[in-house]
Amino acid sequence: MPDSSEILHIRNSHYKRETVAVRHHFQQQYGNWAPLDGSRSKWWLWIHALEEIRLCMNHIHSYLERSRNGNTGMMIIDLFCCRFSVVLSFCIALNLMSYVGQAACINRLCITSKELRSQLGEFGPYCPVCLALYYHLVDTSDNTSLALAAEYRAYYYKMCCTDHLERFLTTTDNFVTPGCPHALPPPHLLPRLLTEGQVKDRFPLQLEMRGFCPITYLDGKQRYEALVRGNMEFAVEYRERIYIFETKQKQEMFLRMPETYWDQKLPNRVPPICEPLRLTSLPMLGYLQQGVAEAIIKAMTAVGCLKPKYPFLSLKRSALLYMAYYLKAFNPHSSNFIRQKYRKKLASFEESCELIPYLDSTMTRNCRSPITQPTDFEFKLHRFLALRDEQGTTSEV
Asked: Name one GO molecular function term (predicted).
């Protein structure tokens, strides 16, 4: 029987075995894999599958309407269904020829990344609207979606946002040759991102502007205070020179407008290079000040507020023990287990210190009947006396 449990189990096992590779292929190549919740009803699945088809058909209709003077090849629509999930896959093969119609968005047309790269227009992956309006170089290579891509005269153009896509579709001639007021610079004059490893591989090529951030310097009106060191993580190569920037945002700003920031001269007097200084190379007083001063100040403040007096120990020894427990209980470099261990010891130490004022207020000169004594008096008195014979108090720290 085609609907028997055995047949369904075989079909489901085959689906689970093949679906990962199939999903990856359609997502990476065509971007047309639409997963649906297989646990929902058949009616729900049918409605959402039709809605997905309707959206795709609307995009195809809009594309054909705007480029109606072109020749279109075949269109194949496949619907894959299984018991636990329904996947809608559209495989559309378009035989693109030279179009003389309007620019059209190519979203949901199943154009592969290879086809897109091979037919990019004169601006490559750069947004033509940003280039025409602001002379900004906005690279869209990181965005693999076709939602912001358009086709015009058999060439593809990628935009950076929805607003720029609408502008391109409305007044295309203003953003392509010969109507575009700015041409894309040649490849050797385009800025390129560099990783920290690539910067090191460029040795002996030195950092431009001695490693200072050109964006911060120019935006700061080229004042001495605006000379800020860049970060090797944010590097750009431009005109065979390497620039590093203070932040990711300033790196992106340079990528947009390299002509504005690249040719700057440093003043004769610049801030010295701040080399990292090892903490262990400091003298003892400086080491303590930089390493443990804050922790010791907090511990001494806690001692001054509590004024601990441990039974049968001097005030000095009590204060030193309390500081030792406090430092270990709040040491940020220790594990959570060690901190919790010494916080319990610190709490026990404080309870022992409270025995002295408690017994002093409870044990008056006049003898009191055991009946009138507090219920915990005997327990705390025995605990107080046991501390006199306790050995190795300091060894527990």
From this structure: kinase activity
Of the candidates 160, 151, 175, the one whose C-alpha atom is nearest the C-alpha of residue 126 is 160
What is the pTM for the complete model shown?
0.59
Dist CA 242 CA 315 (whole Å): 64
Dist CA 31 CA 112 (whole Å): 8
Q: Which two structure tokens, joined as six digits, stand for 330?
A: 């709040």
**Amino acid 282: pLDDT:** 74
Average pLDDT over residues 275-285: 74
Q: For residue 69, what pLDDT band results from cuts at 50, 70 and 90? A: low
The separation between CA 243 and the C-alpha centre of its own chain, rounded to angstroms, equals: 23
For the chain, the average pLDDT equals 84
Helix 315-329 with 293-306: angle, nearest 10 deg: 130
- Tell the residue number behind the tokens 């060191």, with chain if given: 229
> H/E element holding 290?
helix 284-291
Q: What are the structural domain ranges in the chain?
A: 15-92, 111-184, 189-261, 290-396
Taking phi over 0 as left and psi of -120 to 50 as alpha, with beta for the rest, 136 belongs to: beta
Q: Are 23 and 33 in contact (CB under 8 A)?
A: yes
**CA-angle at 341, arms to 337 and 346, nearest 5°:** 145
Pairing of strands 85-92, 33-37: antiparallel
| Omega before residue 374 within 30° of 0, cis | no
At CB < 8 A and 24+ separation, what contacts does 110-115 make?
110/30, 110/31, 110/32, 111/30, 111/146, 111/156, 112/29, 112/30, 113/28, 113/29, 113/144
Q: Can you give the length of the chain in residues? A: 397
What one-letter code names the amino acid at 107?
A: N
Of 259, 260, 256, the C-alpha closest to 193 is 256
User: What string of DSSP letters covers 23-53?
Assistant: HHHHHHHT--EEEEETTS-HHHHHHHHHHHH
